Amino acid sequence: MTAAPDLLRVAALFAVTALAEIVGCWLPWRVLKQGGSPWLLLPAAVSLALFAWLLTLHPTAAGRTYAAYGGMYIVVALIWLRVVDGVALTRWDIAGAVLALAGMAVIALQPRG
């Protein structure tokens, strides 16, 4: 398999994993900070369980997975900031996201021996 399909597959899995984590953390934040319904804690728990399960689907060692995952988490969190929170991204946000994705690619796509 070539590097491009590997990168797309890994990036998609990381993106879904990040979204599950963000939703699982945002819902309790909404309950505690914005007076949301305590019932939001149920889908939050499901989302965090999904997040943990998704992490097991990554093919590399856990520590390496977490390190590479951090890059995609940054990107998804910034997308969340823009789409859900309605905050405009700065050029610094974009530059940081690009650097984080480059780091993710280096870690995730290193030669396996």
Automatic annotation (TrEMBL):
Protein's recorded name: UPF0060 membrane protein
A Pfam family the protein falls into: UPF0060
PANTHER family: UPF0060 MEMBRANE PROTEIN YNFA
Similarity comment: Belongs to the UPF0060 family.
One GO term describing the cellular component: plasma membrane
Chloroplast found in the keyword field: no
Location in or out of the cell: Cell membrane
Topology class, membrane: Multi-pass membrane protein
InterPro entries noted in UniProt: EmrE-like, UPF0060
NCBIfam families: PRK02237.1
Keyword DNA repair among record annotations: no
Native species: Pseudoduganella plicata
Keyword annotations: Cell membrane, Membrane, Transmembrane, Transmembrane helix
Transmembrane segments: 7-29, 35-54, 66-83, 89-109
